[in-house]
Write a structure and sequence with these properties.
Low-confidence stretches: 1-31, 150-220
Number of helices: 2
Strand content: 35-45%
Strand order of the largest sheet: 10-13-16-19-22-25-28-31-34-37
Mean pLDDT: 80
Distance between the termini: 96 Å
Shape: globular
Helix content: under 10%
Number of domains: 2
Length: 487
């Protein structure tokens, strides 16, 4: 006997709705834990300049307790020969959903970084990192972890490509370089801003009352986005306009200065601060320490020009110390015009560059990580130097003798030649030590790690320097004394 069942239109609609609800439920991702309201700061690297090949993945374990539901990470990708998407996924496997939402995209031969919050509820304290298109050096810093309860429907990871401090300006696109058969670098002109500065500061000397912050966790790794600059979580007090420091031993802590910092007293300390400069119409620097008798120490801070221009440098002067400083988006990171300079554990990267620079008669910019006009007792120790076209270290010696210059344990990249020692009319440099540095093979003039006048070469102590592939940097490229050298 055939059993016939008749459905009304209403019954069909009800059954269809129920079926769709079941399917939707099956497709819905499981709920994740609500984001924590408090976080435990740890500040530790879990991946340190690991080269990930195109299409490959690396899985790392996070040093967090089993109760942790979220982790905040700082991701950096660099040294890609072409643009590559870096995906960061919770767990030990990559998924198409994760790779469709990369944490960052690396530019060619430059650094990009992002802050990422990862949901760990189903990750088992594992993290998998993937590079899409090019071998990329990836560094990951675990900033903090949190524990929470409840559920939200937002999938992880949730990323932001902007740092937690004031956003960086857009960088000038770098043209493709063509190598010349013989390096003929030209010493860069003396910094115009070392004369009496034209604009006078409009703000009086402040007496800031900074909010105390914890000292950053020390790191022995290569300086970069995870261990330089303003420590994560620092609350900054905004100072609009120029800041003129006239009282000896003034301490500036946890401040965002939206103008020029004029150091006009000895013993000044600036820490945990962001200095962004202002719009310039003549040559100057974001920090000026060029007056006689002044001195300044800058630590755990970021310096850059929020208004990009051919007129701006990072710091000009002498008697200054930089530690764990993140400096970028200026023509030269520094112009040394005197004695007693120490730069250590800092990240100097991504200079400004112009095809037609008014300071070079409409020719391309001669940008350097450091330009040294004169001075004694100058040391660069354990820094990352990158992103220049002229040189990482350019000695012009156009104001007097440079002596007791030490480059020790740095990661040195780019430039026409990476280190350029031009003696000019002042005779051979005296007491130069270049040791234990790692050079990348990214110079315009292939293989030119160091170039110097022939008279200066005997004054240089060279030891322990290697290329990034491990081969020794065994010699200095010479040129006839009196020749011009640079880009």
């Amino acid at each position: 006997m055939l059993l016939r069942i008749r459905f009304t239109r209403t019954a069909v609609v009800v059954l269809l709705a129920a079926a769709l609800a079941v399917v939707a439920s099956a497709l819905q991702p499981p709920p994740s834990a609500a984001a924590p309201s408090t976080w435990q700061k740890v500040d530790v690297r879990v991946l340190d300049h690991k080269v990930i090949k195109p299409g490959e993945s690396v899985t790392v374990s996070l040093p967090v307790p089993s109760t942790a539901t979220h982790a905040k990470l700082v991701i950096a990708g660099q040294e890609s020969w072409r643009s590559s998407k870096i995906s960061v996924c919770p767990g030990s496997k990559m998924t198409s959903r994760c790779t469709s939402r990369p944490a960052l995209t690396t530019p060619v031969k430059k650094v990009a970084y992002a802050h990422v919050t990862v949901d760990l509820t189903s990750a088992g304290r594992k993290l998998t990192v993937h590079s899409s298109s090019a071998s990329t050096s990836v560094t990951i810093r675990l900033a903090s972890w949190g524990t929470s309860s409840g559920a939200v429907s937002t999938a992880a990871p949730i990323s932001s490509a902007q740092p937690t401090s004031t956003p960086r300006p857009t960088q000038t696109t770098r043209p493709t370089q063509s190598a010349s058969p013989v390096p003929t670098p030209t010493p860069t002109p003396a910094p115009a801003a070392t004369a009496a500065p034209a604009p006078a500061p409009t703000t009086a000397a402040p007496t800031p009352s900074p909010t105390p912050v914890a000292a950053p966790v020390a790191s022995t790794g290569q300086p970069g986005p995870g261990n330089t600059g303003v420590p994560a979580g620092t609350r900054l007090t905004v100072h609009e306009g120029d800041l003129k420091i006239t009282e000896p031993n003034t301490v500036i802590d946890s401040m965002e200065v939206r103008g020029i910092v004029w150091v006009r007293a000895p013993g000044v300390v600036i820490r945990n601060s962001l200095i962004t400069g202002r719009k310039l119409e003549s040559s100057l620097s974001v920090v000026y320490a060029g007056d006689p008798g002044v001195s300044v120490t800058i630590e755990d801070s970021e310096i850059y020009a929020k208004d990009p221009t051919p007129h701006v440098r990072g710091i000009i002067g002498s008697n200054f110390t930089l530690r764990r400083v993140n400096m970028h988006s200026v023509i030269d990171h520094m112009a040394v015009t005197g004695d007693n300079v120490l730069v250590e554990s800092s990240w100097l990267h991504d200079t400004l560059y112009y095809e037609k620079d008014p300071y070079y008669n409409g020719t391309p910019t001669h940008d350097d990580n450091a330009q040294i006009a004169v001075g004694n007792n100058i040391t660069f120790r354990k820094n990352t130097l990158s992103g220049t076209h002229n040189a990482a270290i350019q000695v012009t010696q156009d104001r007097g003798l440079v002596s007791n210059l030490t480059l020790d344990g740095n990661w040195i990249n780019d430039g026409a030649c990476a280190v350029n020692l031009a003696q000019n009319k002042w005779g051979p440099l005296q007491g130069v030590t270049i040791k234990n540095n790692v050079f990348s093979r990214s110079q315009v003039h292939s293989g030119c790690a160091i170039i110097a006048d022939n008279d200066t070469i005997p004054q240089v102590s060279l030891s322990g320097n290697v290329w990034s592939d491990g081969k020794a940097v065994g010699s200095i490229q010479g040129r006839e004394t009196g020749q011009k050298g640079g880009s």
